[in-house]
Amino acid sequence: MKVSYVTSLFLSSTLLFAGCSSSNESAEQTPNQAAAQPAASQPTAAAQPEAGDVQGDPQLAQTVDQYRSYVVTQCDAFVKATEQFANAVKAGNVEQAKKLYAPTRMYYERIEPIAEALGDLDPNIDAREGDVPDQEWRGFHRIEQALWEKQTAEGQGAYADQLLQDVKQLRALVETVEIDGKLLVTGAVELLNEVSSSKVTGEEERYSHTDLYDFAANVEGAQQIFVTLKPVLAQKDQPLTDTIEQRFDSLFALLAPFKQGEGYVSYTELKQEQTKQLSQAIDALAEPLSQMGTALNL
Amino acid sequence: MRKISRRELLRLTGAGGLGMLLGGGTLKWLSPSNVSTSAPAASGMSATGQAVPFYGKHQSGIVTPAQDFLYFAAFDLIATDRDEVRILLQKWSAIAARLQRGETVGDDEGKPLVPPVDTGETIGLHPMSLSLTFGVGPSFFRQKGVNRFGLADRQPEVLSELPPFPGDNLKEEWCGGDICVQACANDPQVAFHAIRNLARVARGAAVLRWTQAGFQRTSTADAAKGTPRNLLGFKDGTANPDTTDNEQMNQVVWVQPDEGPDWMVNGSYMVVRRIQMRIEVWDRTTLQEEENTFGRHRESGAPLGKQNEFDPLDLERKNERGELIIPENAHVRLAFGDGTEKILRRSYSYTNGIDLDTGHLDAGLLFICFQRDPLKQFVPIQQRLAKQDALNEYIVHVGSAVFACLPGAQEGGYLGETLFA
């Protein structure tokens, strides 16, 4: 998903679908040309009416508005939490910074597909070591490394300031991000894909092992999209709606034993059998969730 | 953040779109009009490409001549109620029938914002003799003693966990399963596709527990269609009963009326053993030792002292020094026993990379056999082998499972219908 949203900034995201059909000649085209001239001989998604367009569907338009206000609420809270986190880092209060780190990130993880649609913001905020050249590496994980690996906040002040700035920019930009039905149905699955590819592997929080916070937040973000779409979906396909609901319940039930106070236990405490179960529960949920588009006639 | 950095992504997308990433640069856009879900025309199809009927008195993949490739999957049920399991078996049966005809899982409407119904890797391919064989294990009926689906009273007495055998080194990750699906085909991609898609439609109801790909020499590689050789270089399956002889199959393989529960009549019990071979050790064994281990000549497959593969075993024959020609602990002698226990073997070789602890190849045999009663057929044979077989120096059993392969389904019905009736 990172994949599709980052790209959609630069190419019409419909090209992504067309990408599967692109033969070598479109490889030579610049993205813009390719988007402007879908190959006539090949029916592509680009040639079809915009799938997921909310125009002319007032109910869907309302859904999108609801979701946007959720995103804005999360962003507002994200800015506040990041501010406190940054202050702790700058004050050299390692313990406090560690305490605030994972809960702060949850606001971001809930709306990640949106953030990823906003260009460089995602890598600036959320890149892990090695994702970007070292001199460009900043954001949460840079500070995470210092706090947990080196047990210090020393030298992190500038990163903390930068992070807060980036997060504030995210808050400003979410007002402008274009949300349509497509982003909603794919975004929900993308959030679970995030869990499958980096959270269940314990790769996301490699120093703090707070992966379960991100895990839960991604799932909550997906659930929020589902809940927003639910009235529309239920009209079209009640059994699918029920299945999705029941799979969310099972997943949260699986997560429950790992809760600790307000947060979650360290990912290192999970046994292989347990991470496997969580991973399979994500698969069980994501499969019907990926069918929401059928029911919405997108 | 995921593994692919944005920078890298731009480079990749700049060079031809995401499709290129997945090797899709040559894929045609799949619009409804050019997604063919019907079986390819039979013209030009070789015998190996044909369809094996799914519906029938017995399941396919048991007396079906062994295809070239295997993809075996054991599933655990996460469904908690009986209806969910029945619905799964109904869905699976309908899909299996389509797949065996060479069709995709379902007709794709080409909707842009939903994932395709079928994963696509067999589009346009022949059926390739795909057979899908489904079985239920002891844990299907009782899991840790719990009558999980209210079917415990239907568990056949002969379907129980196998007893431990001396020398077993069973690893949990290669053992058991509530349900098995044996996919065999003359194309490895066709076999894999079947399991992948069955696992996909099962999400939320069942999860994969273990899988193993298997192979043997392909039928095109052996024009004479001789008995295939295992990875120790010896013919494996010479003494198998004749699968074209219905009477023999009724004696050895198919559950008959009035033995065990009625729902299993025309079904068969499958035993699976993942047998790792100590390849490196075997490779430095002398020819004479190898032949004495099996009790057969390597080249011809003939019993020691005989000329031809199918010459009858003469277990009493001695050489001029009075020693048994087929040694006391030779594999063939112990497997034969007194000749009363017969099983239908349908095994495949496997390789799974290397054993990281030893650097040795992880390779061997996914031993699969079918029978009317595992306790009377496989178990006594394996008890003899486990105790004395000379081959034990070169092999170790690391996986084990037993399944009741359901009777066949009739068109309009589903596998397991008799069980759920």
TrEMBL record, chain A:
Family matches, as NCBIfam families: EfeO
Protein family: Belongs to the EfeM/EfeO family.
PANTHER family xref list: IRON UPTAKE SYSTEM COMPONENT EFEO
Residue ranges annotated for the Imelysin-like domain, each copy included: 65-292
UniProt keyword Cell cycle present: no
Compartment(s) of residence: Cell envelope
GO CC, alphabetical: cell envelope
Pfam short name (any one): Peptidase_M75
InterPro entries: EfeM/EfeO_iron_uptake, Imelysin-like, Imelysin-like_EfeO/Algp7, Imelysin_sf, Iron_uptake_EfeM/EfeO
Signal sequence residues: 1-18
Entry keyword set: Signal
Chain intervals with Low complexity compositional bias: 27-51
Top-level division of the source organism's lineage: Bacteria
Main localisation: other
Record-given protein name: Iron uptake system component EfeO
Ranges for region Disordered: 26-56
Automatic annotation (TrEMBL), chain B:
Any single biological process term in GO: iron import into cell
Catalytic reactions on record: heme b + 2 H(+) = protoporphyrin IX + Fe(2+)
Signal peptide: none
Cofactor: heme b
Known EC number: 1.11.1.-
Domain of life: Bacteria
The UniProt record lists the keyword Iron: yes
Cell location: Cell envelope
Top EC class for this record: oxidoreductase
Any one of the GO CC terms: cytosol
The record's free-text note on cofactor binding: Binds 1 heme b (iron(II)-protoporphyrin IX) group non-covalently per subunit.
GO molecular function (one): peroxidase activity
Residue numbers spanned by region Disordered: 219-245
Dyp-type peroxidase C-terminal domain ranges (all copies): 227-409
Keyword list, A-Z: Heme, Iron, Lyase, Metal-binding, Oxidoreductase, Peroxidase, Signal
Family label: Belongs to the DyP-type peroxidase family.
Biological function: Involved in the recovery of exogenous heme iron. Extracts iron from heme while preserving the protoporphyrin ring intact.
PANTHER family xref list: DEFERROCHELATASE, DEFERROCHELATASE/PEROXIDASE
Name listed for the protein in its UniProt record: Deferrochelatase
